[in-house]
Design goal:
CATH architecture: Alpha-Beta Complex
Strand order of the largest sheet: 3-2-1-4-7-6-8
Low-confidence stretches: none
Number of domains: 1
CATH class: Alpha Beta
Radius of gyration: 16 Å
Shape: globular
CATH topology: Spore Coat Polysaccharide Biosynthesis Protein SpsA, Chain A
Structural class: alpha/beta
Mean pLDDT: 95
Helix content: 10-25%
Largest sheet: 7 strands, mixed
Order of helices and strands: EHEEHEEHEEHHHEEEH
CATH superfamily: Spore Coat Polysaccharide Biosynthesis Protein SpsA, Chain A
Distance between the termini: 24 Å
Number of strands: 10
């Protein structure tokens, strides 16, 4: 059993984005799984476990630090079903079969290689961890400590994870995995917006969202 988790706070996304991600996962993940949405507002979504963000104060600071709570064993005991937790950002379009991505034995895996300017090799849009893996990521965290390590425009959770686990296994963006960041490193050359034929998922980052690219046929097909 896998717990698929996403996080909803602020005004960039809403419950409709959650439902589209859930639908995409269910169409493309054969193995047993449940879906968990952590949010700063109340939701009652049939078929989805919904819970409060335990550190809502962290959502007021840039950097997605609230997601680091996933590494807390006590939080895992309360919310995880099964031994694996997969975290997927709401700006992700599921475009192909996911089982090959998640059938891995490592205790922690994170998307890598998709950042164009940020020197951090990790991208927190897709992460998978097994229960009990790297509790120090949460136990050692504070905003003050995160501010002291190298960062790009501002400190963030993926930079902190890189600091604590610098040699984590990953899904390298591109043809090898079918994991892509839209029009970022790993995307087929030629600046085409067409979906790579081997894509399993495409995440958008920064200010970009699937909603802004709904004119693309593949976004309309898969983001529903």
């Amino acid at each position: 059993m896998i717990t698929i988790c996403t996080w909803l706070w602020g005004d960039k996304f809403d419950v409709r984005d959650v439902l589209k991600l859930v639908a995409g996962v269910r169409r493309n993940l054969a193995q047993p799984h449940n879906f968990l949405c952590l949010s700063d507002r109340f939701h009652d979504i049939i078929g989805i476990d919904c819970g409060p963000i335990p550190d809502e104060d962290l959502t007021k600071t840039k950097g997605c630090f609230a997601r680091l709570r996933m590494f807390d064993p006590e939080w895992q005991e309360a919310w995880m079903i099964g031994d694996r937790l997969v975290c997927i950002d709401l700006d992700t379009v599921i475009t192909g079969k996911l089982d090959p991505l998640f059938d891995r034995p490592e205790p922690f895996v994170i998307m890598q290689g998709g950042n164009a300017a940020n020197p951090c090799p990790y991208n927190g849009a897709l992460m998978m961890l097994r229960a009990g893996a790297h509790p120090e990521i949460w136990a050692d965290f504070s905003l003050e400590k995160a501010a002291t390590i190298p960062h790009y425009e501002f400190p963030d959770d993926q930079g902190w994870i890189w600091h604590k686990v610098p040699d984590a296994p990953g899904w390298r963006t591109g043809h090898e995995t079918g994991v892509y960041v839209f029009m970022k490193p790993g995307w087929p050359p030629g600046a085409s917006e067409d979906l790579p034929t081997d894509a399993r998922l495409v995440t958008f980052n920064g200010a970009r969202t699937p909603k802004k690219f709904h004119h693309l046929r593949w976004v309309r097909k898969h983001w529903r």
